[in-house]
Amino acid sequence: MRRYLRVLLVCMVFALISVLYVFSQLASSLETPAGASGSDPQQRAAFHRGGSAHGGRKAPGKPGPEDQHWYNRYIMRKPDSAESGRARDELMHLAVVACGQRLQETLTMLKSAVLFSGRQLHVHIFAEDQLHASFKEALEMWPAPFRSRLNYTVYPITFPAENAKEWKKLFKPCASQRLFLPIILKEVDSLLYVDTDILFLRPVEDMWAFLARFNSSQMAAMAPEHEDPRIAWYSRFARHPYYGKTGINSGVMLMNMTRIRQKLFKNDMTPVALKWEDLLMPLLQKYKLNITWGDQDLLNIIFHHNPESLFVFPCQWNYRPDHCIYGSNCVPAEQEGVFILHGNRGVYHDEKQPAFRAVYEAIQKFKFGDDPVHSLLGPLEERLLGTTHTYCGRVRHLFTKRLAQSVTTVHMDTPKGR
């Protein structure tokens, strides 16, 4: 009897070992891939649908997405054969997010980008569905010599499915879309994101050149939110970590997105560094009751913990009413003029800052092919004379100092014809 019991015990031990081996093999087959630990499986599926892994750094300026991620449709104007022959490293990528009544403002921004730049642009336009046809119609009506400088892709506004409502209502409708650009545009190496209320007063390629000035750890570039910590918003009111002494403004954001996708970001939620796509939702959940400016605040928190990853460019590259509303405080603009104008808080469309509105309407009303010196710069300088009752109007020469050089270049190079 004892012999049978011993045989039975040995059989049970072997059976248990076999079961444990099967379970270990099953568990290893379900393990999360390296670099993806800590993320929700559904979220990872949403982020990477149709995507491919990116090991090394791709050549700068790699053309737009060949696969689609959260969306399955987009409108793309294909380049002409002459455009296709240009070297890929000449192509600059520009992104903008447009919702609501932002169509004309976005078109004016794009007009300024094309008007003063001499290099090819590929524009990634993220817009609400009802704006897609309007963008395509308006851009296709541009005169051929100017339209040939720009290729564009129009995408729907898309967020991870399980958190879409929460992301869309953050700060302003669609504003947080910019956070997901490195995940959506996987085939784009580097990108310049701008808000719709941006106006280029010098060539886009001059901003693009900052990419070459990044050191080995830097992957994004932005301007300070303010120049003086004593009156800056973040230093006085923020209830969350922010970058530097005054925070950063995300209205103009230059990104090496390959580096962003590859980096593991330090954070204050876990001792484990996280990939960009794994960082965003936990960050929102932790700080959503403490942030005022939505996605910009989240970027401030991220780069507060990863300051070595940020390149800070001067205020003249993101010049806002805060730089002159109570007196001039952007020294680089005083020396060299405004390079990129940012009309935040709706100043292009009200009477609070007439100098900003004057620049916007001058570019908006300018007709391609006209003489820019007489049809753009001249009328603008005359109109700015009527803005001297405001502090920004008293430094009106800052708005035209660099613009005058850009306009002269356009005057020399502008092809005739409408």
Automatic annotation (TrEMBL):
Transmembrane segments: none annotated. It is an enzyme of class 2 (transferase). GO terms for molecular function: UDP-D-xylose:beta-D-glucoside alpha-1,3-D-xylosyltransferase activity. Its main location: membrane. Its EC number is 2.4.2.42. Belongs to the glycosyltransferase 8 family. This is Glucoside xylosyltransferase 1.
